[in-house]
DNA sequence: GAAAAGATTAAA
DNA sequence: TTAATCTTTTCC
């Protein structure tokens, strides 16, 4: 059917109600939350009290990464999502004392019937249309925080979903946030798990990833081989976009979400 | 103003 | 296979 005509990117007639933009800043010191209940997530808006936190000096682990893998600049992201997605593989996500290596991603693009930007600019999706290099975090199924990296230039509605990561440091914090004492792929294979491990809420949406503090993306080793496949969980989209091979993963990595049997060499 | 659906996960 | 859980978007 003809469902493809309204997907055009909207003009300025759309009103943009400003999303809640309380960008939380965290210092370079490592924060350890003593409160032990990873089950009930803290309600957005009530950031955990500063006084309840135990501040620990930055460890050598972070210094090593900052030295060898510097934070990526804004320029890195100003390309189309299909190019940015595979380039994000192997890069590092850093927040608090947690460092994750990106192992699986999906590209979402303009004129893409699976992209959140398909309805134009809204309060939720405004960051997607902003300049590349910012986070787009949204609540999925009322439960899961999904982290995207906004791609391309301002005005273009494109982003890359982070589907899976491998743990690099901060394993205890990851396990505590996940409520799971495992080192196996079940810990971080899935977009909801990544968001939970990083301690994200929708307040982190639109957070710049190219400036020090809070959530950052650091440079990392380029993977030797990459596999591609159709994106996951978008059955509502048009066949053309359901079948598009816009899912990318590091070949051979165990840190990849299901289904794995749809991934092939490009 | 009401209702359906969702870029998922964990447990039965 | 299904419940959990709630915001966003659409429909009347």
From TrEMBL:
Q: Where is this region: Disordered?
A: 1-49
Which GO molecular function entries does the Swiss-Prot or TrEMBL record give? alkylbase DNA N-glycosylase activity; DNA binding
EC number(s) recorded for this UniProt protein:
3.2.2.21
Under the heading SUPFAM superfamilies, the entry gives: FMT C-terminal domain-like
Q: Which Gene3D superfamilies match?
A: Methylpurine-DNA glycosylase (MPG) (3.10.300.10)
Which reaction is catalysed here?
Hydrolysis of alkylated DNA, releasing 3-methyladenine, 3-methylguanine, 7-methylguanine and 7-methyladenine
Its GO biological process terms? base-excision repair
Q: Which UniProt keywords apply?
A: DNA damage, DNA repair, Hydrolase
* UniProt-listed Pfam families: Pur_DNA_glyco (PF02245)
Q: Which family does it belong to?
A: Belongs to the DNA glycosylase MPG family.
Q: What does this protein do?
A: Hydrolysis of the deoxyribose N-glycosidic bond to excise 3-methyladenine, and 7-methylguanine from the damaged DNA polymer formed by alkylation lesions.
Q: Name the PANTHER family on file.
A: DNA-3-METHYLADENINE GLYCOSYLASE
The molecule here is called DNA-3-methyladenine glycosylase II
Q: Which organism is it from?
A: Sesamum alatum
């Amino acid at each position: 059917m003809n469902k493809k005509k309204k997907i055009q990117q909207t003009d300025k007639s759309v009103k943009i109600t400003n999303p809640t933009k309380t960008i939380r800043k965290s210092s370079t010191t490592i924060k350890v939350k003593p409160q032990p209940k990873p089950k009930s997530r803290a309600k957005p808006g009530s950031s955990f009290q500063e006084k309840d936190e135990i501040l620990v000096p930055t460890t050598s682990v972070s210094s090593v990464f900052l030295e060898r893998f510097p934070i990526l600049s804004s320029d890195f992201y100003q390309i189309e999502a299909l190019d940015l997605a595979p380039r994000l593989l192997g890069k590092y996500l850093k927040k608090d004392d947690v460092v994750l290596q990106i192992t699986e991603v999906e590209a979402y693009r303009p004129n893409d019937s699976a992209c959140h930007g398909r309805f134009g600019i809204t309060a939720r999706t405004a960051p997607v249309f902003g300049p590349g290099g910012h986070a787009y975090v949204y609540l999925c199924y009322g439960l899961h925080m999904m982290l995207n990296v906004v791609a391309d230039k301002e005005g273009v509605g494109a982003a890359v979903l982070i589907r899976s990561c491998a743990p690099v440091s901060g394993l205890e914090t990851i396990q505590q946030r996940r409520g799971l004492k495992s080192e196996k792929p079940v810990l971080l294979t899935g977009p909801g798990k990544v968001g939970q491990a990083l301690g994200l809420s929708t307040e982190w949406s639109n957070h710049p990833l190219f400036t020090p503090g809070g959530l950052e993306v650091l440079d990392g080793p380029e993977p030797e081989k990459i596999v591609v496949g159709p994106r996951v969980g978008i059955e509502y989209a048009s066949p053309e976009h359901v079948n598009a091979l816009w899912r990318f993963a590091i070949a051979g990595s165990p840190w990849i979400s299901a289904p794995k049997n749809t991934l092939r060499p490009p």
